[in-house]
Amino acid sequence: MKKLLCLALVALMALSMAAIASAEGTTVSIATWDVGTTPYLKAQKDAYEASHPDVTIEYIDLASQDYPTKAAAMLAANDTTDIFMVKEILDLHNWNEAGYVENLNDYIASSNYDLSGFVGMDANYAIDGNQVALPFRSDFWVLFYNKDIFDAAGVEYPTNDMSWEEYKELAIKLTDAEKGIYGTHYHTWLSAVVNHSVADGVNTLIDGEYSDLAYFYQLVLDLEDAGACMAYPELKASGLHYSGAFGNGNIAMMPMGYWYVATMISSIADGTYDVGNWGIVAMPTKDDVAAGSTFGNLTGVAINAKSANKDAAWDYIAWLCGPEGSAATASTGSRPAWVSDDVADVMASVEGFPTDDASKAALLPTYVGVEIPGTDKSADISTALNEVHTEIMTRNLTVEEGIDEMNLRVAEILAK
Q: Within this chain, do residues 184 and 263 fall inside the same structural domain, yes or no?
């Protein structure tokens, strides 16, 4: 009798604990980085919990520089954290190969989840036909421009459907050596010069064939020769940062990632920048590429295969990456991956953002290609391309010689 009584008490306690857990709701845990200094994480948590009062979002905070190593170690140790944010595409490939992340195909199909708002970016998280993550952030590239320089020259502003040849002509036209005004500016990164080649949705920087880069190298070298932009060796020697260069107020246009918008707004507000009137438009495109096409980097989310709350994790991911979560992300000035008029409205409403229609329209890209797709050879390929990039931009190699060198070196890497 005593034994039966004890068993009954244990069962009663178990039921009581289950009732308490049910009353308290569900906790979805998310591994991420730099929680205290990343405003969009708080905005996402607050917005989701407000619309889902039975769910608590709990962040597992890892240092940014240690995230790939620590996240991989947690997954390898069968950690049950529900969601892991994806910092690098290569990490996702490694996690998928090891069986650490959940295939989202069935979740997407059963909920009729609309992927169209990602304008192709979701494909970068698809491996062998399996969607293993979704993007929630994308810092794609746009063209910044100084309206005051255009106004002073009596030249019309750039548009969202400009060709590279039109851009080149505009940069040369706006250049005024006597006044120290440059028509455009290129940072020293390879991405600033030639990553525009991936905006066609065909070429990549890991495919081993780099003839598509020749057009963009020649474009920039021609602009250097025309005095329309500062020369690469000069920039390397001076260490001039792109933000300071455009902030000086003597550069008419500059291709750069959307993240620079936040810097522009804050630096103008505190008087750091000598730029008063500015805007953004879509990156120029080649004639065979759709207007509004560009490139960028992604931040995403994947479900841990060891999660005990996979359905709840999917509900959060579906919300985070879609229109509602994207609005929360955009409210902090960050660029969501989801593209829609509503999200653009939120982004354009941030204090200090340009008020013209063209700048708002630039928030609606038609396609975003990823800079470096993730493979086990991506890091080595990137190193080789950057080394040859320096040789081309310092004119130690001609464009043709440089492209040949890229093809040769990457072929050797791919053959290993």
A: yes
